Amino acid sequence: MLKVSVVIPCFNEDKxxxxxLEALYQQTxxxxxxxxxxxxxxxxxxxxxxxxxxxxxxxDLIIRIVDNPPRTIPSALNRAIAAAQGEYIVRLDAHSIPQxxxxxxxxxxxxxxxGDNVGGVWDIQPGGAGWQxxxxxxxxxxxxxxxxxxxxxxxxxxxVDTVPFGAFxxxxxxxxxxxxxxxxxxxxxxFNARLRQAGGVVWMNPDIRSTYFARSTxxxxxxxxxxxxxxxxxxxxxxxxxxRWRQALPPAFVASLLMVLFLSIWIPILRWVFVLELxxxxxxxxxxxxxTAVKKKDMALLFSVPAxxxxxxxxxxxxxxxxxxxx
Length: 327
Prior knowledge:
By secondary structure, the chain is an alpha/beta fold. Helix content is 50%, strand content 16%.
C-alpha cells in the first residue's frame, strides 16, 4: 500500500500544472511511496497534454487523472480520495508549489499526533505580471486584508480553524464524512469545522510552506471574493458558531454604509457620517499602502494595495449580505 496520496482539483491549469508536478517530483518524501491524483474537470485547454508530457519525462512518479464532470472543487476532492490508495491524503491546488519538504513534514506532523489535519503557510506570489498582480499578492497576505487567517502569514505552530492544503489520514473520511459537494467554495473550512466539532485538531506548522499564485486582476479578485462571501453564508447556517470577526467585519461595514446612505435621505446629517466612515476607511488603507510602498520600495503599491484590499472587503461583504437575502 502506498503511504501518501496527493489529491489535486484541476480545471484549465496548463500554465501551472507542470510547476506543481515538478515540485512534487522534487519532494524529499520517498517517491516509491507516493502517488498523485489529479481530479480534472474535463479541462478545455492543454492541461492533460502537459500532464502526459510530464509523465513521459518522469515515469517514476505515479500520476493518475480522475475525471470530475461536475467541475467543482469538493467533487474533485471526493473523486480523487475515492481513487486514492495511500494511507495519508494530502490536498494541494493546481496553482500551488509546495516546498521540497512539504510532504515529509505533513506526514511527520500526523505521525507525531500534532493534529488530525496538518497544514502550513502560504507564500503568496503574484499570479501574473503588472502592478495589479503585485498589489493583489501583497493584499492577500496582509492582516488588514485577511484578518486572523494565520495560514497566510503565521509564524508559530498552533491550533487553527482551518488550513488551505491539509494532510490527514484516509480514515478521517470514514470518521467525519467526505467534502460537502453542495458547497461550491468554503469546502475546506466546512470540512475542518466538522473535524473540530468531532473533537479533532487542525494544526498549522509554519515550516510547512507552499507558494500560492494569487489572482492577477482586480476583476478576478472581485469574482473570487464574491464567491467566498456568497457561499460562506450557507456554511455558517450549518455552523453558526464558526463565525470569526474577520468574516463578520466586511458585511457589517457594507451594511453600515448602505444603512447610513439610505437614512441620509431623511436625515441630512447622516451624509456627513457616511463621508466620515468612508474617509476613515480610506485613511486606514492608505496607511497600509504607504507602509507597503516604503517597505517594497515600489510607489506603484501606494494606491494599488489599498484598492486590492477594498475589492476584497467590499466583494466579500456585499456577497455575504446578498446571500443572506436571497438564499
